[in-house]
UniProtKB/TrEMBL annotation:
It catalyses: (2R)-3-phosphoglycerate + ATP = (2R)-3-phospho-glyceroyl phosphate + ADP. Substrate binds at D22, L23, N24, R40, H63, L64, G65, R66, R122, R159. One of its GO terms (molecular function) is ATP binding. GO terms for biological process: gluconeogenesis; glycolytic process. Belongs to the phosphoglycerate kinase family. Keywords: ATP-binding, Cytoplasm, Glycolysis, Kinase, Nucleotide-binding, Transferase. The keyword Transferase applies. ATP binds at K209, G297, E328, G354, G355, D356, S357. This is Phosphoglycerate kinase. (2R)-3-phosphoglycerate binds at R40, R122, R159. Pathway: Carbohydrate degradation; glycolysis; pyruvate from D-glyceraldehyde 3-phosphate: step 2/5. Pfam families: PGK.
């Protein structure tokens, strides 16, 4: 696929460039408009800056959340435009619609070196429609704004959406720097991973990670499993898990995985439990095989952190996706912090995959530069590792 460097070499001065970004940032709970983590905005800045400095008129588009195909104030990108301008160090015009009068006026007024952000793409039903004609009609309107298309939204390339799949069919198209780097990293993880290869998986549900576990089972030397998903594995081994998160329908699947993987799957040996899901809960650290009835497991314990750190110590490749516990609440952040710090000490190539893991790194004050790569695309990264074809990448390759 053609990339941003090639586009810049061709020249973009005076041209309008439509950039698909992933500005789907989290907001502080109970504080509308306050961005909790601006990592995704920062990630696209190099591409926007390079285009702007080269004299392009830059039109940025993104989704935010899951509105129902119509405007919803809860999901407006207006706060993102404000933060975007602060980080960019120059004004960012904000269009109050996607392809309507406000967007048309903002694009018409855009001078070389200027930047405009369109309102949430998912305010238009055509963005996510499964009907090709509806999606195509919306893509026609978006493509009419520009001369060139750049996709720098790796977090969305697994979606067959108008802005990701249909627009590049209508314009000369290029991969942005972020997408290019993500693909390089994932190819390394799937085609040329140095061994020993350790994978750390967290998050809440086994079902969300089942396909990637299956895909990596034949490649990884160790699969370290924490987060809410570990309790289904513990239950599959015959242990009681109290009131912890549990997917009963996945128990047989977990038994099968454990039987096939043997000692390559490593589970927690102790967990931090609580009497309720809250920062002020009563807590205790117990053996993973002795969770009290009625109590919730909300983090892996210190012995598990040490076990995981030991398994990681000799690795040459590490892929981490998903926190080890409810890191947003201080009593349950130590497992994620401990495993993250262990990964930073690995003498090899380390990749943090997924928005939650990346947010945890920043929230816990861990140096991002200590990792080989921090991915912006959780679902997209997992689907790539599973071997699936990603519509956004296929569109760029045509």
């Amino acid at each position: 696929m053609r990339n941003l460097d090639e586009l810049l070499a061709e020249g973009v001065s005076g041209r309008r460039v439509l950039v698909r970004a992933d500005l789907n940032v989290p907001f502080v709970k109970d504080s509308p408009g306050t961005i909790a983590d601006d990592g995704r905005i920062r990630a696209v800045l190099p591409t926007i800056t390079a285009l702007r400095d080269a004299g392009a008129s830059v039109i940025v588009m993104s989704h935010l959340g899951r509105p129902k195909g119509e405007p919803d104030p809860k999901y407006t990108l207006a706060p993102v435009a404000t933060r975007f301008a602060e980080l960019l160090g120059s004004p960012v015009a904000f269009a109050e619609d996607t392809v309507g009068p406000s967007a048309q006026a903002a694009v018409a007024a855009l001078a070389p070196g200027g930047v405009v952000l369109l309102e949430n793409l998912r305010f238009n039903a055509g963005e996510t429609s499964k009907d090709e004609a509806a999606r195509g009609a919306f893509a026609d309107q978006l493509a009419a704004f520009a001369d060139v298309y750049v996709d720098d939204a790796f977090g969305a390339v697994h979606r067959k959406h108008a802005s990701v799949y249909d627009v590049p069919a209508r314009l000369p198209h290029y991969a942005g720097g972020l997408v290019r780097r993500e693909v390089e990293v994932l190819k390394r993880l799937t085609e040329d991973a140095a061994t020993p290869y350790a994978v750390v998986l967290g998050g809440s549900k086994v079902s969300d990670k089942l396909a990637v576990i299956e895909a990596l089972l034949g490649r990884a030397d160790k699969l370290l499993i924490g987060g809410g998903m570990c309790f289904t594995f513990l239950k599959a081994q015959g242990h009681e898990v109290g009131a912890s998160l549990l997917q009963e329908e996945m128990l047989d699947t977990c038994r099968d995985l454990l039987a096939r993987a043997g000692d390559r799957i490593v589970l927690p040996v102790d967990v931090v439990v609580a009497d309720k899901f809250a920062a002020d809960a009563q807590t205790d650290t117990v053996a993973a095989t002795a969770i009290p009835a009625g109590w919730l497991g909300l983090d892996i314990g210190p012995e598990s952190v040490a076990l995981f750190a030991d398994a990681l110590s000799g690795a040459k490749t590490v892929f981490w996706n998903g926190p080890m516990g409810v890191f947003e609440l201080a009593p349950f952040a130590n497992g994620t912090r401990g495993v993250a710090e262990a990964i930073t000490k690995v003498d090899g190539f380390t990749v943090v995959g997924g928005g939650d893991s990346a947010a945890a790194v920043r929230a816990l004050g861990i140096d991002e530069a200590a990792f080989g790569h921090i991915s912006t695309g959780g679902g997209a990264s997992l689907e790539y590792l599973e071997g699936k074809k990603l519509p956004g990448l296929e569109a760029l390759e045509k």
